[in-house]
Amino acid sequence: MVWKLAPSRRVLVAAPDYLKRTGAPKSLADLDRHSGVFYTNRGAADWRFIDAKGNAVVVRGKVAFRANNGTMVLDAAIAGLGIALMPTFIAGPAIRDGRLVVISRRQAGSGMDLPRPCRRKATFRETPRTRRLPETVLRRSALLGAS
Question: What pLDDT score was predicted for residue 105?
Fold first, then answer.
C-alpha cells in the first residue's frame, strides 16, 4: 500500500545563457528545434505535457545530454547544454538564484506524486513520528522551492 506524500511538480527550465544563444521557445512545437537535457530512467528522450484539453503531448528535442541522475541533469541544464524538464524540488534553488529560468509554467510537464510507502493497512500502526512525516517533508520541500 502507498499513500500520497506530496505532489512532484515539474517545470521546463534552461540556463539564461542557453536562452540568450538560442532564443526561448514560444510554444511546445518550438521545442523540436531545441537541445534537450533528459532524465533517462524514464527510457525515452522526450518531454511529455498535458494540453488544455487534458491530452498527452510528446515533444522530442535534440539530445544534448542524458543522465539517470537528477543532479547531473540539473548541472547540465545550468551549464547551458539545453532545456530540461525538472522537478521543482531539484531545480528550485537554481531557479531562485537565477542559474535557471522557467520557460513557462503554463507548459509545465505532467507531474507525479511522491509516494509514502507503508505496510499493509491491516498491520500498519501509525506513530506520532510517521504522522508528522508528510508535514515535515512538505515544509522542507517548500523551503527548497518545491511548491
Answer: 59
